[in-house]
Specification:
Layout: E1 3-7, H1 11-22, E2 26-30, E3 42-45, E4 50-53, E5 58-60, H2 64-73, E6 80-81, E7 87-91, E8 96-100, H3 123-127, H4 141-145, H5 152-164, H6 173-182, H7 188-191, E9 193-195, H8 200-214, E10 218-220, E11 227-231, E12 234-240, E13 243-246, E14 252-255, H9 259-265, E15 275-284, E16 297-300, E17 307-311, E18 314-319, H10 330-345, E19 355-365, H11 369-372, E20 385-387, H12 400-420
Parallel strand pairs: 1-2, 1-14, 2-10, 7-16, 14-20
Antiparallel strand pairs: 3-4, 5-9, 6-9, 7-8, 11-12, 12-13, 15-18, 15-19, 16-17, 17-18
Helix pairs in contact: 1-8, 1-12, 2-8, 2-12
The structure holds flavin-adenine dinucleotide.
Length: 425
């Protein structure tokens, strides 16, 4: 039986490898960096003296492929689900606090309860979101909802930034509709926020590596694929710094790397090139902080800080679609966000504590109509080469769920091919 060669050990590569190993195939993984996880990882920060994530991540109950992945690798209990689904918000300039608490989509009585809506809005304002269902491929959220809608700044904009990492002015209306269909329109359980109390790697990466090691997968770090050699319609070899590796006839290669690297390695695709940054600032505080709203995260309106996450002694601030912040000096971002944090949580938070700014310059593809139109599928013109990654055409936002679904799709294609190819061919 052949080997599935998986290039890249991010969520897409790991989920592909886990599926192939589960199906009894031999798996080899090649990861360019010294650790697995890609854009979704934890690391020990020497300056802060603790483990932090590259950026705060959240799942929702609708992320079924991710939940299956967690079950496969045995780490579902390392992700905490907030029940009932609740998203707390605070707007510092008005002092208003509210909680979005989605309920049944069929009897949306929850919308009749003012305590479960954005203040000053009425149920009809939410019904306007149904216009998104008729959006065309080229429409943006702003074009469909309208920038003066009472929910624009206090609901649609935060959702677009958090889920699509794209400002609502530019974000694809069709993709936002897909998100709403899979979450709000499925009911409370599909909307439940799921958070990583022990960090991203503890839940998503380390158990996958343990599973793969148990399955005798071969995992190589600092193994950057430099090129592939192909002839007719098959990959014949892969070029690594230490030399060429022959790809046997019964083997399959899955490229699970970011879009720019994929384009270098396999020039036949013309993947999305426009990406957007996410900036995270982690503050090491003296003691764990309870956030207004009583949950470990809080959405903020009208400030540069968009979300605060509180975990143990670390307060983490997220700014998505962060083009305006990514080139600011780190000290300036840390100072500015700390002054917002103290204004929200109280002056007794003290002076600027130890901090770490993490700028993920290419956090995700820009999820605009034009960029989304260039997402490729998993198949290539070579019959033993498949592509995975959150940026491929999954029909979902570029998220953990999208990455995991893409990895599973590539695994299905790889397994199908490998069970068809006769070994002596
Ligand atoms: C700050 C931040 C916050 C986010 N928040 C959320 C969130 O709340 N919820 C959510 O669902 N998603 C979130 N995301 C998105 C999520 O992290 C990504 O969608 C997902 O991790 C992408 O996984 P991937 O496997 O497609 O790509 P990657 O993680 O980029 O994996 C690609 C891997 O390929 C490796 N590689 C590159 N070149 C080579 C080469 N030549 N040879 C070998 N290996 C190579 C890389 O080192 C990397 O490990 C966030 C992303 C960021 C950056």
């Amino acid at each position: 039986m052949g080997t599935v060669h998986v290039i890249g050990a991010g969520m897409a590569g790991l989920s592909c490898a886990v599926q192939c190993a589960k199906a009894g195939h031999s798996v080899a993984i090649y990861e360019a960096s010294p650790q697995a996880g890609g854009r979704c990882r934890s690391f020990q920060d020497e300056g802060l003296g603790c483990l932090i994530d590259n950026g705060s991540h959240m799942l929702i109950g609708a992320n079924e492929a991710t939940k299956n992945y967690l079950d496969d690798i045995g780490s579902r209990d390392l992700v905490s689900e907030i029940v009932p689904a609740t998203f707390p918000f605070f707007q510092p300039d008005t002092g208003q606090q509210w909680q979005i608490k989605p309920g049944s989509p069929y009897f949306p009585m929850w919308l009749l309860a003012p305590g479960r809506r954005v203040p000053g809005t009425n149920p009809i304002d939410y019904a306007k979101a149904l216009r998104l269902s008729r959006a065309k491929k080229e429409d943006t959220v702003r074009q469909i909802i309208g920038g003066d809608d009472p929910l624009y700044d206090r609901l649609w904009q935060p959702i677009c930034r958090a889920v699509l990492n794209t400002d609502a002015d530019d974000a694809s209306a069709q993709l936002l509709w897909k998100v709403l269909k899979l979450s709000f329109l499925k009911g409370e359980s599909a909307c439940r926020p799921m958070i990583f109390e022990k960090g991203l790697s503890a839940a998503l990466v380390n158990p996958a590596l343990a599973f793969l090691e148990n399955s005798e997968a071969n995992i190589r770090y600092q193994a950057r694929l430099r090129g592939i050699r192909w002839e007719n319609d098959v990959v014949l070899a892969m070029r690594f710094p230490e030399g060429l590796l022959r790809v046997e006839n019964e083997d399959t290669v899955v490229l699970a790397v970011p879009p720019d690297i994929s384009a270098e390695l396999w020039p036949d695709t013309n993947p999305p090139q426009e990406t957007l940054p996410i900036v995270n600032v982690h503050f090491r505080v003296r003691e764990p902080v309870e956030l207004p709203g009583g949950l470990p995260f809080l959405g903020l309106i009208g400030t540069d800080s968009q979300w605060i996450f509180s975990r143990d002694n670390v307060l983490s601030i997220t700014i998505s679609a962060a083009s305006a912040h990514v080139d600011m000096p780190n000290w300036e971002i840390a100072n500015q966000l700390w002054s917002e944090v103290t204004a929200i949580l109280g002056r007794n938070m003290g002076r600027l504590p130890p901090w770490r700014v993490i700028k993920e310059r290419r956090a995700t593809i820009a999820q605009t109509p034009t960029v989304l139109a260039s997402r490729p599928g998993a198949k290539t013109a070579l019959n033993n080469l498949f592509i995975a990654g959150d940026w491929t055409n999954t029909g979902l936002p570029a998220t953990i769920e999208g990455a995991i679904q893409s990895g599973r799709r590539a695994a299905r294609l790889a397994i199908r091919r490998m069970t068809k190819v006769p070994e002596d061919n």
